[in-house]
């Protein structure tokens, strides 16, 4: 069986250029590796899960679509869908164009600061362009792609979905959940259709609809997409919801990737399962000891609030995975000790087997409700299925005891009892490789990740930085050790020199021309908002109030 790779891509705003560089390098490395002479089927690497938040959601959908149907578009490091979207196409000039050049329509000024048409256009052209003529070519599938790919995106549901839980002695507690997601399975053979990818394109735009910067996005959702436990009745199915940036509440959906993996693997073949986590954040502390009551003005508070909010939406799944890996490692260590005790005769297999049998009968039967207390449902896995799974997961230990022997069966059932009692049956050890970077090495990280939109040079810098960081991870000797993803057989392609003077660029360091473009664009948009609100009276308000106020605010921003 080939090695399977699940990729999670964090939210990034303009630092999508960094993630684009990482993803290009990863795809190129796997393509070279899988096509190398002498590589066996077991040594090949296939990507079968992709999850993303915000900008990472758009990247995940683009990569999945192109891998399945348009692999030939990924040959050139500086001319491919990711580079063309995140480096060449999306920029400050386009984001500030809030008037449609074809129709003359102005985007509603109270819905967003920047133009959402740019992002909508990228989704339409890059993902749906294949289907524009009504006829599309036969798919060309990337050597890194599995035949089917599970896609997941985080969303923030501004309407909310209600879940109800019984209270004692009577009544119900209603919890409205705003953390949302969309998951779909797409394949080479059955999903090359515009209606499939239109839904995914819309979801990727919604996931990246950064609050205030871009307008919210409506989508129809079906009740079947949501967890049933406690879900309150819906008036309509499908129902329409309004979404904003998925990275606000969950910016790094590693847990979603694990859930999608479980639907594929069913907790089997974990020795060939790997995870890749891509993020432009997380290599340095975001703590700020200098922030205090005295300097907590509106500007400082907004900047700090943005960092705090983003920071709390990051790494929760990673931390959970690390903690769970420790629990699984502890159970594996106990299993190894048990093997030694059985082999030495210190523990008698007969008595152990009888005890384990009795425990499993209890653990795999659904308890009945007693009194008013709710009893959780046990897992859907049967005892026979669980025994087969444990037998596969611990095949080396069982082989050392003699497959089919009383000692081997006693070991299998005891480990299963340990696992079930500890509620680890749905958990697996996750081998996670991180391709993260310090923001001090990026050009576009300031202004909560929007700075990269100011100049293509910044996005080129971060794209190449992504390629270099990915290259260091992919060629690290650790990757070639037993049980790891590698060794990956590839020769890195040419990378342009990185301009180190752009490392850690700050807003105040921008050129006068870049500052002027941003100032004029923001002031123009604010004027449109005022005009929309008060009509005729907006002109004197512009001259007397808005212009001086905006100049003061922007001067403060560029001094920071």
UniProtKB/TrEMBL annotation:
UniProtKB keywords: Hydrolase, Lipid degradation, Lipid metabolism
Please name the GO terms that the record assigns under molecular function: hydrolase activity
Task: State whether keyword Magnesium applies.
Answer: no
Query: Which PROSITE patterns does this entry report, sorted A to Z?
Result: PNPLA (PS51635)
The catalytic site is made up of: 54 (nucleophile), 245 (proton acceptor)
Could you give a single Gene Ontology term from the biological process aspect? lipid catabolic process
Q: Where does this chain carry the motif GXSXG?
A: 52-56
Record flagged with keyword Lipid metabolism: yes
Give the location of motif DGA/G in residue numbers.
245-247
Which InterPro entries has this protein been placed in? Acyl_Trfase/lysoPLipase (IPR016035), PNPLA_dom (IPR002641)
Q: What is this protein called?
A: Acylesterase/phospholipase RssA
Q: Which SUPFAM superfamilies match?
A: FabD/lysophospholipase-like (SSF52151)
Residue ranges constituting the PNPLA domain according to the UniProt record: 7-258
